[in-house]
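Protein Record: Sequence and Backbone Structure Tokens
======================================================
Tokens: labelled as protein backbone structure tokens, with as many entries as the chain has residues.
Task: work out the structure tokens from the sequence, keeping to the layout shown below.
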Amino acid sequence: SADLSTPIPTAEGRLALSAPDLSAASELAGTPLAGAAEATLALSAPGGRQDVALSATLRDLAAPELLPEGPARLARLRLDATVTDAAGTPSATFEATAEDAAAGPATVARLTLSGAAEDLTGAPSATLEATAETLAAGPAEIRRLTLSASAEDLTGAPSATFEATAEDAAAGPA
């Protein structure tokens, strides 16, 4: 049995990564890569609880041979994520934004995702919001696509809702 009265050790510090040329990771990825990456991981212990924060940015990411349909590219991706009370009653949030993304013939001008999860060791709940602007694939285009989802009590009596809305959708010429 575990002694729950013993405090769990915490850590504080910061780790930074800078990779100005991702072509060095091409062999590891199994495909030619280009672009740059920066990331920071921060650990803090306010009030004796363990918090974790991650921030990362990818710029000018390109993988010209990744897909048979054509190159994959991403002008910018920004990710910010936090976990609060990681060793106790953890909760998490994240936000990610991608700009000028393409995978073969499909493109997205901007994609934003955000989410949160609460009570991860009890009756977890989660929310997710996504918005994509100017999605196109061949002649089809959607000016704005919005998705929203939430789920509660994921380990007990789970319930979930989901909503999707597309604005100004066109299939192109007939």
User: Anything to note?
Assistant: The longest helix spans residues 26-29.
